[in-house]
Write a structure and sequence with these properties.
With 216 residues, the chain is of the alpha/beta class. Helices cover 42% and strands 24% of the residues. The chain has 10 helices and 7 strands. The mean pLDDT is 90.
Length: 216
Amino acid sequence: MSSEDSFYQDILKGLGVYFDSPFVADIRETAERFPGPDLGFALNRNQITSKKWLVDTLFETTGGKLGRVCILGGWYGVLGAMLLHDGRFGIETVCSVDKDPTCEAVAGCLNRTHVDTGKFTSLTADMLDLDYGEEGFDLVINTSCEHVERIGDWFARVPPEGLLTLQSNNYYGIDGHVNCVDDLGAFKAQVPLSELLFEGQRELPSYTRFMLIGRK
């Protein structure tokens, strides 16, 4: 480990002690086991701001009883960790799904606290292949709608009974952003919800994040 890495590891250790935070401890362990820029991207200001907005709005909208949660495009499991470490929520389990096989081990490490209790699992799969009805999820979260070229095919697979929380953006300049939208109206047209509990947008540096919460 370089002196710079050791310096930041010590900072995370200190923060973990000060806040008595198992989440910070899990982040420190993950940074140590999986060093690299992608983890930094997953924990950067824009990513955390977008996820905190989702977490807070989800609580305000639902009251916090979430049951079985599926997070699509879960990447390194940051959103799952934020939900599970938030004492306002009643969550049975979180399954974080990503089609990139390199994400599973990192997400498991970042959520080690809840892997150990059986509340968090990470799954390598394509969201277009899942049987959401059979899995019996109470809440499906997809914060990666801008990455889903066949958004209509995915939406058709989602049963109408469960709750949906969806995010997209207008950040066209990123590889993989194949389904960006210009505004909330365009986003709502892509995923027509029969019961809309929340719609909103958040201005971030370089782009706007859009969010919908409701039922199909």
